[in-house]
Amino acid sequence: MLDYLKLNWKYLSGAALLHALFAGIFALTMISMSRNAPPPQLAIQAVVVDPSALNAAGRRQEQQERERQERAAQQRRQQEAEQQRQAQQEQARQQEEQQRKVQEEQQRLKEQQLQQQRLEQQRQAEQEKVRQQEEQQRQQAEARERQEAERKRQAELERQKKAEAERQRVAEIQRKQKEEAERRKAAEDARVQAKRESDLQRQLAEEEGRNQAASGGQLDAYRLMIMQRIERNWYRPPSARPGLDCRIKVAQAPGGTVLSAQVTECNGDAAVKQSIEAAVMRASPLPPPPDPRLFERNLILVFKPQD
To answer: Fold for domain 216-303?
Structure first.
């Protein structure tokens, strides 16, 4: 009853207001008739309003409203029934789909198990085959080892016989080689001693000739030519100050080709040292000495350019 009142309170309120309106009209009509009534006459005139007619009209309106509400409720029930039917159909379809997936998954698992069983059987068969092959190979290997051991034993006996004969032969050869080596060593010692004496004589002669050439001023002239060549190829940097005094270590090949140049001592800065080393490399090849005996691979030159 409460649910009915909550759902239809608008229509019930309208019906109550309609009844109240009719009651008000009736009351006003009665009041108006009593005020405007003519003096009492013998014959009484009255206007009679039938309340049953008003009630019947209200009941008809209420009946129409209830019928409309019942039609709306029936439509809602039909819609709810249709929605429930569609939901049931969708649920049934989902259940069928889920059952189909379950069956497919079961079938897949069954096939997978069968595949695994086949693979396991194949693996076991392969393992058995491998085991048999390994057993056969082991037996063959043992037979080969026995044969090899016998062959090695016979070979060892033969080797020992040959080794003894070879030992005796080698001992004879070593004795002869020792005698030959001693003879050759004596001859080589004599040759080395003769060569050493010859080289010493040659070095003494070269040193004597070098000393003679140096004492004649040729060595100083040779070094002067080299320094003049280097100074001509030297580009004086702005930082070079007067009184420059540097020592240069120069390595040259036969023919005067400069192999390396390094300033070891210098009162100039890094730019001056670098310019001097570059000048030595540009001066390559250096002039040859007037006497070949004065040639030196490694030179220590004093660089003092004129200011």
So the answer is: 3.30.1150
**For the segment 136-186, what is each residue's pLDDT rounded down to a tens digit?**
999 999 999 999 999 999 999 999 999 999 999 999 999 999 998 999 998
Domain range annotation of the chain: 94-192, 216-303
**What pTM does this model have?**
0.35
pLDDT digits (tens, 9 = 90+) for 250-292: 999 999 999 999 999 999 899 999 999 999 999 999 999 888 8
Report how far Cα 52 is from the mean position of its chain's Cα atoms.
99
